[in-house]
Write a structure and sequence with these properties.
single chain; mainly alpha; two-stranded antiparallel sheet; 78% helix; globular
Length: 487
């Protein structure tokens, strides 16, 4: 029942948007729908843990385990926050005549299609269907990246489609190689993940190693891992702010989910250590690239996009430190980054609306012109760089502990150096935006109530998980770690 509800709600909201024309009513119903969806995900988690975390296989095409529920929960939290934030954001865009009332219905439909494709990825058992769903996220979100239909947004959308489509083609080759060894060596002529996992110990190690490289490069492109990250800064800077939050907070993690499924298939034939080497390599390169580019940014949303590259690199490093608590830390960081980066993109959306520009040189003195957003952005900045008592501090610390536990002392030092670079860049830029001298002629801007609610909602997770991690969430993360390691 709960699984059906999660699938049906976005479809129902899409249908409803055809008949409702009032912007406020449409956005309110949309937010209510995602509140119900979030409640369904929480109830599914409780029911799952109460039954001892068993895997669920329904009709051969739905498969749910701890990893599925973790990514469902992450998607539901950020999607609900984005739907609430959209209430005031879209009304403002209509009032400013940036989009028409008629186009509001298209936004709601695309928003729900985008969320629907991300929600079904963790539910699907068939790896070909997972590939199709992830490709659909690209095609649907491209319309949202180019939603304003101006030169810059259209160019960003095309770049996004081309780069991610090339990446997803590599992922398809990886799936073909996995299927080849599955059918030839294990006699499993199916792309059902559960069936393939049962015979994965008989896979040809040489083919699995080659297939995994294609998977990591292919889905890693969509996950924003450097050097395949080039689409990300342009897409984030041009997308509507609620969509930027979904792209950074959820889409990158959903692509990571697909990688982890194939890593689990590869474990019995080549061992987790083989995947861990690539996680470390891509993680280090992502942190290096992001640290350099953060320092020279002028566009606020591009700055946050490069911060996402840095954090996906940290998640990858955590996964690379594997059995020493790194997987637990990496997944915990994935959730923390999702909620923190969503908050920062909401603040950026408010700033762009008030200053009518993405250029940080033109948007200073935020705390004077819009105090609530200014305070939220400053606190969000401290959370993003990993200061206590915020949740990212805990996950970054756990990743460092895993690095030392696995005796990767050089990697830990490298990680700290480039985190310091990112810290310096973010401190310089965000402090000017929030505390700098407000430009003349820019009036004070009152944030919509929905924006404040969305920021407070995300703030509960950012601060709450930094002070105490609920036992249910700990159990979920531990179960995910055990699954990924094949224990």
């Amino acid at each position: 029942m709960l699984i059906a509800l999660i699938i049906i709600i976005p479809v129902f909201l899409i249908t409803l948007s055809v008949f409702i024309r009032k912007v406020r009513v449409l956005c309110l119903i949309n937010a209510l729908g995602y509140l119900i969806l979030l409640a369904a995900c929480v109830l599914l988690l409780k029911d799952f843990l109460a039954k001892g975390s068993p895997s669920i296989n329904l009709w051969g095409w739905i498969y749910i385990d701890a990893l599925s529920i973790f990514f469902l929960l992450t998607t539901a939290v950020v999607s609900f926050a984005a739907s609430v934030y959209s209430i005031g954001y879209i009304r403002h865009e209509v009032a400013e005549q940036k989009i028409s009332v008629r186009k509001t219905g298209a936004y709601i439909q695309l928003f729900n299609l985008f969320c629907f494709t991300m929600l079904i990825v963790p539910l699907l058992n068939n790896l070909a269907l997972v590939w199709i769903a992830i490709e659909m996220t690209t095609l649907i979100s491209a319309f949202l990246v180019g939603f304003y239909n101006v030169k810059e947004s259209i160019e960003a959308a095309w770049k996004y489609i081309i780069i991610c489509s090339v990446g997803i083609t590599f992922a398809l080759l990886g799936i073909i190689f996995f299927y080849y060894t599955s059918s030839k060596d294990a006699g499993i002529k199916s792309l059902e993940w559960a069936s393939m996992l049962s015979g994965s110990g008989m896979f040809n190690p040489k083919i699995v190693k080659l297939a995994l490289i294609f998977i990591l490069v292919g889905y890693g492109t969509k996950a924003g891992l450097a050097p395949m990250h080039n689409w990300l800064p342009d897409a984030h800077s041009q997308a509507l702010s609620p969509i930027s939050a979904l792209l950074s907070g959820v889409l990158l993690k959903i692509s990571l989910y697909a990688i982890l499924r194939f890593v689990m298939l590869a474990n019995l034939s080549v061992g987790y250590a083989y995947s861990a080497k690539f996680f470390v390599l891509f993680g280090l390169f992502s942190i290096l690239i992001a640290g350099a580019f953060i320092l020279v940014q002028k566009d606020l949303k591009r700055l946050l996009a490069y911060s996402s590259v840095e954090n996906i690199g940290l998640i990858s490093l955590g996964l690379g430190f594997g059995a020493f608590g790194g997987i637990f830390a990496g997944l915990f960081h994935a959730f923390n980054h999702a909620v923190t980066k969503a908050l920062m993109f909401f603040c950026a959306g408010n700033a762009v609306s008030a200053y009518r520009s993405n250029n940080m040189n033109k948007m200073q003195g935020m705390i004077k012109l819009m105090p609530f957003t200014g305070i939220a952005m400053f606190l969000g900045f401290f959370a993003l760089i990993g200061m206590p008592p915020f949740s990212i501090f805990v996950s970054k610390l756990l990743i460092l502990i895993a690095a030392f536990g696995s005796k990767h002392y050089f990697l830990a030092a490298f990680m700290l150096i480039f985190i310091a670079f990112a810290f310096a860049g973010l401190l310089y830029h965000i402090s000017r935006v929030v505390l700098g001298k407000a430009p003349q002629g820019v009036p004070a801007w009152k944030e919509p109530l929905s924006s404040k609610i969305a920021l407070l909602f995300l703030g509960i997770f950012i601060l709450g998980l930094g002070l105490r991690i609920p036992q249910e969430f700990l159990s979920l993360l531990s179960s995910c770690e055990q699954l990924i390691l094949g224990k």
